[in-house]
Amino acid sequence: MTIVSAGLFKDCTRCFKSSNIVGVGLGGTLTYRHTYKINRVRFSGSIPSSFYCCATLSITMEEEKQTFDADKAAVLVNELRETFSSGKTKSYEWRTSQLESISKMIDEKEKEIIEAVHKDLSKPELEAFVSEISMTKSSCKLALKVLKSWMMPEKVETSIATYPSSAEIVSEPLGVVLVLSTWNFPFLLSLDPVIGAIAAGNVVVLKPSEIAPATSTLLAKLLVEYADESAIRVVEGAVAETSALLEQKWDKIFFTGGARVGRIVMAAAAKHLTPVTLELGGKCPAVVDSNVNLQVTARRIISGKWACNNGQACIGVDYIITTKEFAPKLIDALRSVLEEFFGKDPMESKDRSRIINSFHFMRLINLLDEDKVSDKIVAGGQRNESQLQIAPTILLDVPEDSLMMQEEIFGPLLPIITVEKLEDSFNMINRKQKPLAAYLFSDDEQIKRKFVQNVFAGGIAINDTVLQITVPGLPFGGVGESGMGSYHGKYSFDAFSHKKAVLYRSFGGEAPTRYPPYTPGKQKQMKALLSGNLFNIILALLGWFKD
Amino acid sequence: MEKFEKNLERQLMAMRECYKTGKTKQVSWRRSQLKGLQTFLKEKELEIFRALNLDLGKHYVESFRDEVGLLKKSLNLALKDLNKWMSSRKAKLPIIALLSYAEVVPEPLGLVLVISTWNLPLALSLDPLIGAIAAGNAVVLKPSELAPACSSLLVNFLPNYLDNEAIMVIEGGPATGEQLLEQKWDKIFFTGSAKVGRIIMSAAVEHLTPVTLELGGKCPAVLDSLSWSWDKEVALNRIIGAKYGSCAGQACISIDYLLVEKAFFSTVVELMKVLIKKMYGDSPKESHSVARIINKHHFLRLKNLLTDQMVKDSIVYGGSMDEDCLFIEPTILVDPPLQSKIMTEEIFGPLLPIITLDKIEDSIDFINSKPKPLAIYAFTNNEALRERMVSETSSGSVVFNDAIIQFAADTLPFGGIGESGIGKYHGKFSFDTFSHYKAIARRSFLTDFWFRFPPWSNYKLDLFETVYSYDYFEMLLVVLGLKRSKMRFFIN
What we know:
The complex is a heterodimer of chains A (547) and B (492).
Chain A: E1 2-3, E2 9-10, E3 14-15, E4 29-37, E5 50-60, H1 70-86, H2 92-108, H3 110-121, H4 125-151, E6 154-156, E7 165-173, E8 176-180, H5 188-199, E9 203-207, H6 213-226, E10 232-234, H7 239-246, E11 252-256, H8 259-271, E12 276-279, E13 285-288, H9 294-303, E14 319-323, H10 327-342, H11 358-369, E15 377-379, E16 383-384, E17 389-390, E18 393-396, H12 403-406, E19 413-419, H13 424-431, E20 437-441, H14 445-454, E21 459-462, E22 483-484, H15 490-495, E23 497-505, H16 520-531, H17 534-542
Parallel strand pairs in A: 8-9, 8-11, 9-10, 11-12, 13-14, 13-20, 14-19, 18-19, 20-21
Antiparallel strand pairs in A: 1-5, 2-3, 4-5, 6-7, 7-23, 12-22, 15-18, 16-17
Chain B: H1 2-20, H2 27-43, H3 45-56, H4 60-86, E1 89-91, E2 100-108, E3 111-115, H5 123-134, E4 138-142, H6 148-157, E5 167-169, H7 174-182, E6 187-191, H8 194-204, E7 211-214, E8 220-223, H9 229-244, E9 257-261, H10 265-280, H11 284-287, H12 296-305, H13 309-313, E10 315-317, E11 321-322, E12 327-328, E13 331-334, H14 341-344, E14 351-357, H15 362-368, E15 375-379, H16 383-392, E16 397-400, E17 421-422, H17 428-433, E18 435-443, H18 458-468, H19 472-479
Parallel strand pairs in B: 3-4, 3-6, 4-5, 6-7, 8-9, 8-15, 9-14, 13-14, 15-16
Antiparallel strand pairs in B: 1-2, 2-18, 7-17, 10-13, 11-12
Helix pairs in contact in B: 2-4, 2-5, 3-4, 3-6, 4-5, 9-10, 18-19
């Protein structure tokens, strides 16, 4: 007999650690609850002493133990490889049928999806609708609408060096691909890459994040129901399952998450020469000039921070840089708009997501409680551990060497850094690792131009935040520490396609120049040919061409 | 060695500083460097031919065709199209971003490393360099130590033509390579074997450096039973040229083996014997039109491929080897055992196995049973077979009725898939390989849909729905209150 699952939960919702509980019951499943003192939890940060323990102990026989290990993963990949070899996923009909089915799934299961995301993150319904449902649906619709043109071979011109010939670039699927997703937009960031992979004709395995368990389970359930199981699979699990998956040979790995795990993924990929797309994060700055429309600026910053999964977004605003004189005005504006959006007591507002789990809650509290940081709070600062909520918090002039300014914040804390001249912000941003996004609020054309030219980032939005990801015509992806590769719209299709060069020649147009025995005359003709100048070629053929 | 490392770190730091000044981003800088390369090729042409002859015994016409000429063509194109490549591209926007403007702007990656190889020591060093410069990067180039004459030519003369603050050539072997890999790069461009490719990609992990890996693989050529004698002769000339004529088969896109129908193979072999004689004369070594093997190691490797008795017995033409001159005669084998090394490893030399099949259509399964090659060549007039070849096989490129010339087509991406590599270059693709496409969205402060911000309500939800489905008319109805809200549930 073995314990399959046991957990220590906070308020019976959040799992901390599972190995300290020993309890054996007989016959099926039993659930019990008691208070447990934690003293041996490997966990950074301070741990409150009293926890509820809620464990579900399933008693099963050893041989029925369901673990997803490397052997199982290998079997899975082999099965999928056979599906891919059959060629069925390459057809236009298969791709559209799957995309239509996913689109139908989103329509029919909208309620369940929103509920799951709410369970995982307390994400407000409207926010969930906008950022998860709508975005996924429009990405599906776009793919369905233009898939034919994406799949069409691209005719290209050929030069005189290969004359006569015709050439085209054919998009072909890569094969069996792995999508590793994350928890902050658990639905969107799982399905958006999957849509690209299907559109490009691949066979896909999706591993949603175990940190958003409700959405993960729902995705596993729904895709079995709506998608072709022989080609689209969901594997649920945590580190062990992910490692088992990463040991396999994939034709592409698409990863969304942190840079640390990104490195693990890339190292695993190197063994099989698997190309990777890494969608990471970084500290995305927002630079605010003093000539802006304050009200609009404050609204747009807040919508890109607290109204965007409560700051838990890879492209959310991480910190603000503004001038010394302007900072107080900006803070006032932010304060009043915050009140307008979330009411007098923001802790009561249902219009913000909560922090995903206790681990991240503690991480954020640690950032906030650091010496020389905690006295910089100018707004907010309230916290409620049982609800995993932190009020929208603004800090002024946090020291550059504090943890908050070194690490990605990924939560509802917003430090404001002040500079003498706005242009100083460019160097400040470029001194750090390249972020996924950089934002600028300004009415000054010159500053705008300089910002676009000089600031290194995955993407840039001027006078708004986050909005750039809703533009399917823009590639979404990082550079340096914020990732490699891009997706969205046609870029998603390209991320999962190989661009095969195809060159057609006839047996005509044979030039003896190419073959030995080599003579000086042949070299001249070749020089003329490669120069691409028709006149030179004629001269060379007549023997008059001089180099 | 330690001193070298300190020195290297200091030099790279200086290069990064130089990059930060923005100098390499300027169009004028990029142009002047590309022109510098042009002058180098023009002024040092003779030295280049001499070096290639020393390293590989290449005939100067071959050197021009495969290296100098190709580079000149790449440079002409880069100089002609640079402004077009550098300009930004506009993108379409949805209505929620009313009165906005979006574009994609290419920006350089930073300090990049190009690690080159020995078979086309000039072309494979300078072609990526052209892309890196065109895209505005600072570049370190490490040519292969296995082609020492070319490597020292590049180290000694190239710096005279380029801005040494931002472009550096480093000479050295594996130890130098290792030290270079320990540094932080913004891109690594590697040409070579899959084995080293894996090492490069693993080293790139530490700094999350993107890589382009140009590897090789066993590139098959499928030869259909062509009926017209003209077609047959042209096809075989091209096959011979692509096998023995480009660095004696030591090229990543050389033909590795040939697939023909059983009934056709004797015709092929007989005709090839005649055509090889016509091109290279009675003694190919004396013709100086076939390159030699790069070094003893590779010579012995190739010799070993033939030691198996069954393989030896399958030789129908050639097979003679001159160890002192490192020369191997153009050699043809028919049906060596499929599990022998010559059919499982990349040959990279002037040995051509011919594998016979019952039907030429079987070639598709045969190719698919092996790792994905860099190129597939098919000589056929059969339209149906062509279509199947494109859609049912996977490779870096597919070329019909010719071989190797795809390398000269700038409009086509050059690069592998799976075991044959990651990423692509040539022409505009070279520029793209060394650029980051930065997405830019611009807005004014004027317009904002009021429903973009919390507190949230069902009314706002309906509006979002219309906006995301791009349904302007319905949106108007909702705004005017003429459309009933969908029944919705509440969680909160």
